[in-house]
Amino acid sequence: MLEQTVSLRVPPERVAELAAFSGSLLVDRTRGELSSRCDSEEANFAAINLTYEILEHIKDPLEARQQYAETIMQGSHPEYQSGLMFLLPIAKQAMEDEPYRFR
Fold first, then answer.
1. Helix, strand, or coil here: 79?
2. In what order do the strands lie in the sheet with 25-28?
3. What is the pTM of this model?
């Protein structure tokens, strides 16, 4: 397995959508990171690119699953496998937890 990580904020209320798309995605809200674990770099790029499209409301999770299958199994949409298709954010993506206050 190969794990690749990008700096990308995922709102907590959107994590369920991403889980419906792929069980290979890992969201670290505190660090502001999204990771994909697959058997190849190309599969990770495809998963991350499609995740970005879900977050941007370009595709829903079912559309993304279908395109992922076409991309990996049939070799269609090679652009999704060759690298990131979006610019990574420059600003800090972390969503730090508020400290618990003891009385």
1. helix
2. 2-7, 33-38, 25-28
3. 0.86
